[in-house]
Amino acid sequence: MDQYKNILEGLIKRQMGILGRAKTEKILADTGIRFDFLTQSLLDYQADGKQLMQLLGERILQTGGEVALIGARVSVILRSSREGLELPKIFL
Amino acid sequence: MDYNKPIEIAPGFFWIGVYDEEAGFHCNPYLLVDGDEAVLFDPGTRPHFRAIVRKILEVVNPLRITRIVLHHQDPDLCAAVPDLEPLCSPDLTLVSAWRAGVLISYYGVRSPFYYVDRNNYRLTLRSGRLLTFIPTPFCHCPGSIVTYDEKTELLLSSDLFGAFSYDWSLYAGEYYMEAMKAFHEPYMPSPEILRRAVQRIERRRISTIAPQHGSILRGAQVGEALQVLKNLDCGDEFIPLQES
Questions:
Q1: Closest CA to B177 of A71, A14, A10
Q2: Nearest chain B residue (CA) to A75
Q3: Domain around B105
Q4: Most buried residue among A27, B63, B91, B205 by CB atoms closer than 10 A?
Q5: Does B194 map to a domain?
Q6: C-beta neighbour count of B166 within 10 angstroms
Q7: What is the pTM of this model?
Q8: Is there a contact between B167 and A20 if contact means CB atoms under 8 Å apart?
Q9: Over the stretch B206-229, which tens digit does the pLDDT of each residue have?
Q10: Does B175 touch chain A (CB under 8 A)?
């Protein structure tokens, strides 16, 4: 895991609210992200955090359209600004 | 729960919306039946007009509807009002704040307005039942209001406490606060404006919050949602604008 852990965790939790648990589990499939749905915490991932965010953003858009992406965008932007992280293109 | 039927959410108050499995943004119109009088709240989503009328008919003769409360002027609340008006009482009035009413007129409505801000934010029904209105300016429209019913401690909160959710249910589930934040962050203008509106609301004793989007909040969820919105970063300053 890298410095994107918190922002990724927040993004996944937000999608639990917007898309629901079942669809969120689907968008995480094959990403290598291990997420504990009971404690709502990110356990592990191996890939580059920024690239994973781009991948999740694309899947969120594909699954829930602009509503699902817009619903996550402000909190993602805020967190990236506070933590000094570059955001992938899809959230800009 | 049978979403094809009107659902009583508090004594006399019915949810008369439509459950659309594909939608991420649900509209919740409500109907109050009070003695020989009935009141509609935000009923105007045009795609659902027929379904809403069918549900009204299951509860009450629409000729008993004397008031339509419009919490702000957006089309999801108001667009079908000109089609509803002929079905309602000849004495129908539209209840809104003045700043919303000015714009609602452009839907081509024909009924006279009852402006809450010219009437001490109160409306007394024939039975003596009192509905009060709380101004929530710029949340998200200048003339936004919400309705509070003292008798049932029900808040009809319009856009406030609404949510984006593809995993919709009439009553809020365990992940609702995230869905609620998802809607308020891009739609409410600033943390200060949102906080002021929520502080006005929380002075009332509230058992149930019924928003116009999203799901209904009850019990401990009410206090939790008030706290979430009072502390939410939202609005214009956090949204980058890509100008050419």
A1: A14
A2: B185
A3: 7-238
A4: A27
A5: yes
A6: 23
A7: 0.95
A8: yes
A9: 999 999 999 999 999 999 999 999
A10: yes
